[in-house]
Amino acid sequence: MRVLVAGATSTLGRATVDELGRRGHEVLALTRSEEAARELSGRGLTALVGDVLDASSIASVLDRTRPDAVVSLLIKLPRNGPRRYRDYRDSRALWDIGVPNLLAAAEASGVSRIVGESVLFAYGYLDHGEKHLTEDSPLAGGRTPAQREVLDSLRGMEERVRVAGGVVLRYGLFRGQAVPSEAYLAKVLKLRLPVLPGGGRSVLSFVALDDAARATAAALERGRPGATYNVCDDEPAEFGVYVRAVATRHGLPRPRSVPLRLAGLVMPYIAMILDGVRIPMANGAAHRDLGWRPTSTVT
Q: In the CATH scheme, what architecture does the domain 2-174+208-232+282-290 have?
């Protein structure tokens, strides 16, 4: 297939264009930056410059290139991970404006396959209990106006992709040495700074970056139109277990904890996630429909 990847320079985008190339697809890597386009071209990719926030710009790109499929990996967060709700401002613009523009351009160009990136937090920021969440599990409301704004944008984007006949992938938190936030975590651990608000007892779903890229390609090839799939490890893990695993892999000191109250003054978004949140996702639908399984675990 001739596949346009929007968000080709994101963390998942870089891994996905490589995976699609290995599978024999023709990849069109979309970016807003001329500099990023040169970097992509240097990797042997066909780079396109266009802005999904500009409806005419993205419509022109798709009309000119006529891809068979579109992969929307439109999310923009700080490289070290979000610390405050306002760090989602750019992502919300992409979800609210960029994705609708991309979907409209795809429809006008006759694109037959669409895959869109979502994340585990679409289920809501709270304790969902011990039972693993399936794609049919109810979505929880936000506890604060800031939470509701993020969730409304994220879930609205998901629904637009599904209505367009696309496939939504709810990824766990990315892990692996190529993930910028994990590289930053390793640096902080090396400095022996506290990185575990409240001891890191929240339970979250994770997925290795390479596994996520394989799932993205599988969804493009085999995903059921209008479906949502959880893309995550077979078992969730406490955030503290993940951090300790990173420390062990890098031969770094055991991570130190910090009271949630103090962490909330510096990074309120992270402190909120680690204050009793449990989002244990099930990946059975991806096993069944996509023929995909994760190849590793947090530990």
A: 3-Layer(aba) Sandwich (3.40)
